[in-house]
Amino acid sequence: MCRWLAYSGEPLQPSILVLDAQHSLVAQSLDSPLGAETVNGDGFGFGWYPSGTTRDPLPHLFHSIEPAWNDENLRELTMAVESPLFFSHVRAAGGPPIQQTNCHPFRHNRWLFMHNGSIAEFGRLKRDLTFAVDPALYPSIRGTTDSEVLFHLALTFGLQDDPVDGVRRAIRFVEETGHAAGVPFPMQGTVAVSDGVTLWAFRYSTQGRTRTLFHSADIPTLRKMYPEADRLSLFGDRAHVVVSEPLNDLPGAFLEVPESTVVVLDDTGYHHEPFLPHE
């Protein structure tokens, strides 16, 4: 499907992760060993919160239908800015057309959202799912992807007040709608959501065989494990990254997120919580 990363911590030049890591997101766009598709060349997106914003931060977006490995603007932009929280996503189109409005991350006010996975048989379910979106939010759907509809369902079900419950209720509705239409495993994927302060990362599928998701170990821990790793000096003590697959081969640097789990990342670090739609 796709590959994505989300960073939170001290302000960082995004190119350090997006471009320069051993298995950077751009490298994964050409070769993602753990992905459903090896190549993710159907466009990309980059969303970031400006450094220094402390109240109601509004994120910026850059989308392109170019392959990430072939876009000089991505290199220029990720080298020019610093951000304490940013998302980046490379796309492998599973059906919806290659166009900028279908590139992740998606934005609503201060919220960013991105997804790796799919709603099974979305064409059959699209009408019922889309019509369940709050009419006030419906005009904000600009593209044709299942991911954007899922985001707007989560907003409809209260994401801005309680992100975990909003995503849970949206996925429950997708599953109920799918099962009513005879789709056995409607939901698949990993999801990242942020308000610019906290990051929520979900790993869940109806079948219980979800796309991979990892998060980095704490930087102070990694410095003790690898005292000669000069690259770790680029990161502050609060630097954390959540990724579809690890950005390097250092044992213990990235930890797999369990199935049916939401990772909450705030100023105190990672918190894992069980994530299952209520029956």
TrEMBL record:
Work out whether the entry's keyword set contains Transferase.
yes
Q: Cite the InterPro entries for this sequence.
A: EgtC-like, Gamma-glu_amide_hydrolase, GATase_2_dom, Ntn_hydrolases_N
Does Transferase appear among the keywords?
yes
Q: Which SUPFAM superfamilies match?
A: N-terminal nucleophile aminohydrolases (Ntn hydrolases) (SSF56235)
- One function term, GO molecular function aspect: transferase activity
Q: Mind listing the UniProt keywords for this protein, alphabetically?
A: Glutamine amidotransferase, Transferase
PROSITE patterns, per database record: GATASE_TYPE_2 (PS51278)
Q: Where is the Glutamine amidotransferase type-2 domain?
A: 2-279
The name of this protein is Class II glutamine amidotransferase
Query: Which organism was this protein described from?
Result: Agromyces aureus
